[in-house]
Amino acid sequence: MSFQTRWSSPSNIAIIKYWGKFGRQFPCNPSISFTLNKSKSIFEVSVLESNSLAVNYTFENENNDKFKARIEKILKAWCDFEPEIATLSFNISSSNTFPHSSGIASSASSMSALALATLDILYQKKNLDIDREFYKKASFLARLASGSASRSVYGEFNLWGETELMNNSSNEEAIPISFHENFKHIQDSILIVSSDEKEISSSLGHELMNSNYFAQTRFDQARENTRDLLNALETGDFDHFGTIAEAEARSLHALMLTSEPWFFLLKENSLNIMAKVREYRQKTQRPLYFTIDAGPNIHLIYPPDNEIKSFIDSELIQYTENNKIIHDEIGLGPEKLS
Ligand code: DP6
Question: What percent of the chain has pLDDT over 70?
Answer without folding.
Answer: 99
